[in-house]
Amino acid sequence: MDAERKGITGDLFAALTQPASSGVAKPPPAVAAKTPHLVPGKSPLNPLAAKPEPTVFGQPRPAPATPGAAAARPSRVAAPIRKLPAFFYRMPLRAQRGYLASDAIDRFPLTPSPAAFTMVAALMSALDGGAPSIVQRASQSLLGEVCRLLGVRPVRIEVRSVRPRNSRGELHGLFYPQAPTRTAAAGRSKGIAPTAGEPLIVLWTRTAQRHDVVKPRTYLRTLMHELGHYLDYSLLKLEDSYHSIGFYQRESFLVRTLFPGASSPPRPK
Ligand SMILES: [Zn+2]
Question: Who surrounds ion ligand 1 at CB < 5 A?
């Protein structure tokens, strides 16, 4: 199963995200309310919400300084004073350091362009119909613009139709640090050609049970969540991408920065 490959950040069922080789006990969520990827009512505790996610990326390095963006520079000065999830104390020291590094950053140095706002609006319109190919184009444009503004390589996205599901919930999004060959081949046949081994985001436009088109703001938040995983590696140079509280703060930062009209976008349903 591709989703069991080491390094994939899955916002999907626990059964698929638990790395086969993982010796880490399944952690409880850091914050029970932050359960963006499971269907409400399925479980109040999302084991994915604070799951350590091993990756195959290299050594952590300091985030690059971005001239002119001092006000929005990630705050790295100190880990926030708050209760750490219980699983944190069971993690190896190296992983603990990575978790704290993630937790200490609450935003990205992003100042949105007029084009970015236009692209968000276009994406919202595309989601009215829910056609994956149209949503994918709009999503790719927005991702490309945000990545350009942040000075990182654009990340590919593949948009599919109906979310997969199991008894624990339904899959909202996936981030592959390195796209598997199969996914890359499927993309090529549709003309989007993600290259195997390159980062890839996968999102779905319709709910698993009723096949309703996902609410636009829900989709946007999921998109920003997966983009957040990509930016953890490409911009912040974190060794792993954890669902730390800082991670969710960065996700919210992206949503409110790019979609200021929605003061409090709902958590995905
Ligand atoms: Zn995630």
Answer: 11
